[in-house]
Design brief:
The protein is of the alpha/beta class and 384 residues long. The protein has 13 helices and 18 strands. Strands 12, 13, 14, 15, 16, 17 and 18 form a seven-stranded mixed beta sheet that branches. Strands 9-8-7-10-11 form a five-stranded parallel beta sheet, with helices on both faces. Strand 12 and strand 13 form a beta hairpin. Helix 8 runs parallel beside helix 13.
């Protein structure tokens, strides 16, 4: 049994113990059918570990979500094959969806079909925070409803019921997410659990294009886009592979909150991406997993001479200038040379733009290789 399936089964057992079940409607119109677990079209999930898809006959798919729950995706007007009675039946393409993460909506944009935005019935991020023009437009004309994200913790689900979504895209990384799943189970509103942020590495993260594409019958397009983007990344990797060590800038990464610096270890995705972009990660000796905490003085000692500083915050969340965040930044070489970058305000909405993100890193580290580059996911610091 693969590591992926072991992970899915283990997580499913945990979720069953916590009481968050499958939810949704029962299958209908079951018919006997010869189906195959092997995709006849050559489709398949190769790198992502937090979901899986079996491509069956007649456009039907058996999708296993990040909670180990099985969803049977059946094209509208098609018949559900027999033998999958325990799976949640979802008709595709999804026409009215509720999205609880801007990141998930970003994958719709990455599928390059503007009409997909018409399927968004509700989101949990208010209109003023969206930088995606297609979403802002649909807010303005009343197509999209804003649902307060913590309303379900108080038991107020009237707004969700009124929206009547066909499917809710959610996660279970917080108590609120688990509470929402429990309420959706009680209301028999179908949902799918998404944990794309648990897949590290461009090859795995990009493959979530196939996950979202499956709900819109865009499986082959998602697969094609995935291969194209991987090919483009490989071209960029080859472009910087031969850069001598002496020509590789040192890059620091982190942000300050209550006097503590939150940064990433040497094994993190950002550290690996910087290495691929022809840079040296300033904290290459920092061991650990996930977010790491350092005192500001220690961060200064380790990163004072870094050529570039990526301040891991959206500009809208910063107090003012970088020195308002902490005056010790004045001692950083990167600050003195005005080589500081922040995340763009639309960073999370653009998180599916993995290639563009890498191109931004490449332009930071080696501007001579990215002449005329326009930053999209990161931005040069505007207010020193």
């Amino acid at each position: 049994m693969s590591v992926k399936k072991l992970w899915i089964l283990a997580l499913a057992a945990i979720l069953l113990l916590s009481g968050c079940g499958a939810g949704g409607e029962e299958q209908e119109d079951e018919v006997d059918a010869q189906v195959s677990d092997l995709p006849a079209t050559g489709l398949g999930i190769r790198n992502a570990q937090n979901f899986d898809i079996q491509y069956l006959a007649d456009g039907v798919k058996l999708l296993t979500d990040s909670a180990g729950r099985e969803l049977l995706l059946v094209p509208e007007g098609g018949k559900a094959p027999a033998g999958y009675g325990d799976a949640l039946l979802v008709r595709t393409p999804v026409k009215r969806a509720m999205y609880t993460s801007t990141t998930h909506v970003g994958f719709l944009g990455a599928l390059e079909e503007d009409s997909l935005y018409d399927s968004i019935a509700a989101v949990t991020t208010e209109a003023s925070q969206w930088s995606t023009p297609q979403v802002a437009e649909r807010f303005a004309n009343g197509q999209i409803t804003y649902i307060v994200q913590d309303s379900w913790t108080a038991g107020d689900v009237e707004s969700i019921v009124a929206t009547a979504p066909d499917l809710v895209f959610t996660d279970m990384s917080s108590e609120g997410g688990t509470a929402l799943c429990t309420m959706l189970d009680q209301l028999a509103i179908p949902y799918v659990v998404v944990a794309e942020n648990q897949d590290t590495g461009s090859e795995a993260y990009l493959e979530w294009l196939k996950f979202f594409g499956a709900f819109y019958n865009l499986d082959e397009k998602a697969d094609s886009l995935y291969e194209e983007k991987l090919d483009h990344l490989e071209e960029l990797y080859r472009k910087v592979a031969s850069i001598p060590e002496a020509d590789r800038p040192v890059v620091a990464f982190g942000m300050v909150f209550d006097g503590i610096v939150y940064t990433q270890s040497s094994s993190s995705s950002i550290a690996k991406q910087l290495e691929r972009a022809g840079a040296v990660y300033a904290l290459q000796d920092l061991e650990g997993d996930g977010v790491m905490q350092l005192g500001m003085e220690e961060f200064l000692d380790e990163c004072r001479d870094a050529d570039i500083l990526i301040y891991d915050s959206l500009p809208m969340y910063m107090q003012g200038t970088l020195l308002d965040e902490n005056p010790l930044f004045a001692e950083f070489k990167a600050y003195q040379n005005q080589q500081v970058y922040t995340m763009d305000n639309g960073y999370y909405m653009n998180s599916a733009k993995v290639v563009e993100k890498f191109e931004d890193l490449l332009a930071m580290c080696h501007p001579d290789l990215a002449e005329g580059h326009v930053f999209t996911v990161y931005q040069p610091l505007q207010n020193y």
